Amino acid sequence: MVPTILMLLSFVTFASSAITLPTSKKSLESKYQVMHKVAMTEEGMVTRGQDGRIDKRMINGMKKYWLMAETSNPQFVMARSVLCTSSSVVCLFATLYFLFNYFLVDLFKFGVVHLRSHSVYGNNTTWILIVQIIGMVVGTLVSLCRWFTAVRFKCLTTCRGISLREELKIEGHWIQTLVYWRDSFSGLQIQDNKCRRHLHDAKWFALTFLIGVQIMMVIVSKLLLLIPALLITPFILFFKKLKARRLSRLTTSNNDIKTESEGDTELNLSRFVLLLDSEAELPEKTLKNICGQADKVIEMGKEQQPQNLIHLLDKFGNFSGIREFDSFHVPSLHSQEPPNCWSLPLVTLTSIAISLPKIVNNHKATQLMSDVREGLSLVKLIEKTLYKNDELLNTRNATEVSWVGVALYRKWQGIDLRRISLKCKNSKNVLQELSSNAERTIVEFKGTTNDFLTDNPLNWPSNVIAANSMYRICQTILLSCQRGKEQTADGLFERLSVMIADILAACFTNLARVIITKCHSNAIEEREKSVHEAFLLLGKTGQILELLQRQEWPSLDHDKAAYIDEWRASFLQSNDNPLTSSRSSDEAAKSAISNAEQITVMAE
């Protein structure tokens, strides 16, 4: 009988907690939206996200989002709920009853021999019983720790004085869902009005009873915290007075403590703790621990910094590679050109670089692959975060398909890059071979496809988009070779590496915006994970951001800065760019702006 009652109490407790979730979530979400606007205004995170730079004030603003995400996390809300802590007491009684009734009583009545199993399974059942007892005791101890913590927090509030009426007050979120169910009209399609009235009355009485049960459960749960807190509070006050007397004698230590307290309250983070109505404030120590976790995540990210990528970014110059990798002197194979994403030219340039003679089997190729692999992981994250509504989806898919072949098999669309390197005598022949294969793919596609949808490059298959990128970049490099630039394999490899570094650096100027965007996750269930990823990314890319902040960036709107074609259009229209373009400025600007407009229309 007793186990049944305890199990029923546990079920009612968890059911009562589950009923409060919708209203609790709604209340916390509304408070989050209010404090979100406050945080954005106070720290100026909108403008900081636009200029792409990270400073100490911005990190402090991010900590506000960390605190809001942690304190509004559904698991944390349930853990500090009075119903959840009261379930620990039920668990304690269940454990004590089991140990007393099935262990101590049998031991004193029948001796140890009675505890031995007479089952056909032998002593195995005894070991199973022991394992279950251990698990039950450990689970009970963990739940009791949570209850003791809640009692300790309650003691801190009772030290300042309490009102019994306020302590036992039933907040709206406890019964709001049940009241709505009770007062709303039933959706049953019953023609008989008398029958519908009786059903509504029955529902009203049943839910009124459940509301009473819910109120009773909340009051009992609050008493289970309040009574122990009232008993312990006098002892806490006594020890506080003793501690205060000791500290008063240590003037220096006291001044240090005040200094630390002033430093900790400088950010005034307590305003960003999201609590339910009438919920007790979290202790200062808890807030410090939560904020300290943010610093630990940043340090964890610093330990994961991509050293190979940072080595490649040392070659970064002044973003000129964004303009140089594709020349508008190269004739188009189609009436329209597909817009670029950041990752596609990176994969194409890497494929060309590792296929050059004397490079394909060299450690330089292996090192470049490692560098680009680390860079692409961040580039893809930036594209995934900033490109909404499946923007440039086919272009990004083309990158994925091409990179899998290059990274795993050193093949580009089934073409063995090692074989091409051995077959061709010099770098020029390699470029011509890759360009011819890419051109063949595009021509075959145009000859075999008559669908009007393919007139739009955004609808092209992935392999055709990748082939178009390979064709244009190879032809651009061949044109520059004809103009007397370096043609040796080592020289061309270094030039391509600089282009890759420039494109990566330009893409990484969006990192600050990505970090801020991740702090602003809308879904309450995903908010904690998203903010955690933002702080981890901040630590992981700290050295990269420092490197970029030493450079001068083009004056681009933060929305346009997410697109490589907008960068190209900006550089080609600017007269301040230090490098001379390999194409006509008017033609280049016209074509780049066309691609940028195509992206803008697609985004809308």
Commentary on this structure:
The chain is built from 26 helices and two strands. Helix 16 (363-386) packs across helix 22 (511-519). It is an all-alpha fold. It folds into two domains: 2-300, no CATH class; 307-504, no CATH class. Helices cover 72% and strands 1% of the residues. A two-stranded antiparallel sheet has the order 1-2.
Sheet-strand content, in percent, reads under 5%
The total count of strands amounts to 2
Mean pLDDT figure: 81
Q: Shape from CA axes?
A: elongated
Which bin fits the share of residues in helices?
Answer: over 70%
Largest sheet: 2 strands, antiparallel
Give a brief outline of the structure.
By secondary structure, the protein is mainly alpha-helical. It has helices at 2-19, 21-43, 45-51, 56-71, 74-79, 82-110, 124-158, 164-167, 172-183, 193-249, 251-264, 284-302, 307-313, 321-324, 343-354, 363-386, 393-409, 417-423, 427-448, 462-482, 489-508, 511-519, 524-540, 542-549, 564-573, 585-603; strands at 411-412, 415-416.
